[in-house]
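name: query_chain
kind: protein
chains: 1
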Amino acid sequence: MDDIITQLGHWLSEVHGSGRHTTTLALQLIFIATAITGAIKARDYAQKRKQLKERQTTTLATDSLSMTLLSSEGDMPVKYVATLLREDEGYRLEIMKSSGATQAINASERFKSLDEVENHLRQNTQFLLSDFK
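structure:
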């Protein structure tokens, strides 16, 4: 049994390559396993995003999606309500801000696709498209 373990240890610690880029076989196996795991996770993530967008598109055909975010500015509590609606051949995003007794539409913009909405939300707001229900 010790001979098998010794041979396995030598095989895994065998150095490959030359010069600066030498690696052991064990390290190469770790790299390969990491790459395979990453590819599987990326595929699963893409599939979940696709299912989410399909659900949102189906919901937006008949209803709207909204999200609420509570925050504070100074000592005042602030409530942001974002609503996403299907309109003609695109989408309309409304963000309303209410602080105390005042309520105002902070933004109302039109977009051609859900991808545009998602990019706008990520770049300009604290909202994420996946949080809309």
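note: The first strand starts at residue 15 and ends at 16.
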